[in-house]
Write a structure and sequence with these properties.
This protein is of the alpha/beta class. It folds into two domains: about 180 residues, Glycogen Phosphorylase B (Rossmann fold, 3-Layer(aba) Sandwich); about 170 residues, Rossmann fold. The chain is about 40% helix and about 15% strand. It contains 14 helices and 13 strands. The strands form two sheets. It has a seven-stranded parallel sheet, sandwiched between helices. Strand 9, helix 8 and strand 10 form a beta-alpha-beta unit. Helix 1 packs across helix 14 and helix 10 packs across helix 13. The protein starts with a strand and ends with a helix.
Length: about 375
Amino acid sequence: MRIWFAGGGTGGHLYPGLAVARALVRQDERVRPFFVGARRGIEREVLPTTEFPHRLFDLHPLYRQRPWQNWRTVRGALGAWRGLGALAAEERPAALVATGGYAAGLALAWARVHGVPYLLQEQNSHPGLTTRFFSRWARTCALGFPEASALLRPGRATAIEDTGNPIDPPPAPLPDRAAARAAWSLPAGGRVLLVFGGSQGARAMNAVVDAWVARGLPPGVHVIWGTGRANYEAHAHRESDRVRVRAYLAPIAEAYAAADLALVRAGAMGTAELCAWGVPMLLCPLPTAAADHQTANARALAASGAGVMLLQQELTVDRLDAEVRALVGDAARLDRMAAAARARGRPDAAARIAARVLALASAR
């Protein structure tokens, strides 16, 4: 039974699909996931390293600022449409899972025209254009943030579900925090702040953290800092007995297990993992994210009590120091934030979505 997966361009659209595909195979060994995407997206680098067959097309987004280049979009769409037809002639898909982005739009249009049922997985609290448009014909919209439902216009037969975002779930029970800190050569006492800005890091955040560390950390505070590979050399010299500086945190579970608090962007997948681990957040949304969706994510998490939002223009050394001191000095507040984060966590999201896809495919 072949299930198509479409979505990419960025890791935030691709990795959820991979998590669901693996959950599908675990639930039913007859399932054969097949990924379609864009040659210019991150899937070009990631999919060849996975176990899944795939086909990449010359897909392009809409060039809103350079409309004269939309001939590329039209040409790529026509070629991909023919390519999808050829794939379906080999073996018709039983269902399609779309995780957003321009790489998913063409596959969704093809599925709609040819009667292939599909499930949409939307990661963010502000759903993307592709999700908003195609939600009216979806069998299921699986939401990473329940707040996204307010911006969708589903059809009568569309089920809207707060599944959470599909992630690698933390172990149950969670690892012992003292043992996790010992693995980082950090003391069991005190507090640990985890800092990361995604796989590429966050230059603005890194600059503030660098100056804060240089000025002197609050008493009892230690830092695990993932700078991103491109920024590591600029900050590696801040390594000390209280600060661990790494280019990339892999496996990041070792950092989650040791952390009391995290300073992060407000990307959907990273915050989903932090919620599942019950780690409170200082959220500094990326101001240039499409449709400012990270700010919407941060607002939703702050409103739930799981985090504190700090806009990038507000993130100064003084503000960071004040926020960290206030939180580490108030154990009851930190515990409430951790509980609110866990309440939003959906560690079983991939399995739940996979079960929905199987039901969709079987009905077909």
